[in-house]
Specification:
Layout: H1 2-61, E1 68-73, E2 76-85, E3 87-96, E4 99-106, E5 117-121, E6 124-130, E7 133-140, E8 143-149, H2 152-156
Antiparallel strand pairs: 1-2, 2-3, 3-4, 4-5, 6-7, 7-8
Length: 160
């Protein structure tokens, strides 16, 4: 009887160890899946935050009287800022091929949307100026965000 009770307790310990190993593996796999989901979700929202921040920064850095307008060129809607620095330069912010892009060039250089500098992934951008307020709607992977910008220079009536 003594040998069989040791054999049963040995099998029981081995069985408990096996169950522990199986549940530990399941926990690691579930944790990895949850982590991957959080990283994907953060990356999904990161592009739209980068786009929003980029647009606000560009608008603030170029906040001068009467330089801002919304245009459609080559079938692409752009936020356009035009500056006269000895020559006339234009900065265009727009979406092309799933990317938020920036085009900075002399005004006389023809606008080629695909040649703009890619900033980040973005599915769409819709902009309009209403009562001096620029409204920009951004969308990426089903997530939407709106950016509002009231130019200070045009509100004050000068380039201050």
């Amino acid at each position: 009887m003594g040998k069989s009770s040791h054999a049963i307790s040995g099998v029981f310990v081995f069985l408990l160890l096996g169950i522990f190993a199986v549940f530990s593996t399941i926990m690691v796999l579930m944790s990895a899946k949850a982590y991957r989901g959080m990283v994907d979700n953060a990356a999904k929202h990161n592009s739209i935050r980068v786009a929003s921040s980029y647009i606000r920064t560009m608008l603030r850095s170029d906040d001068e009287s009467d330089v801002l307008r919304v245009e459609e060129i080559e079938g692409v809607q752009t936020i356009t800022m035009e500056n006269d620095w000895e020559d006339i330069y234009v900065t265009r912010i727009y979406v092309c091929d799933g990317k938020l892009r920036e085009w900075f060039a002399l005004k006389e250089i023809p606008f080629v949307p695909k040649n703009g500098e890619a900033v980040c992934d973005l599915d769409s951008m819709e902009a309009e100026i209403e009562d001096g307020l620029l409204k920009v709607k951004l969308e990426e992977n089903g997530t939407a965000m709106e950016v509002y910008f009231a130019p200070r220079a045009s509100a004050s009536g000068g380039d201050e």
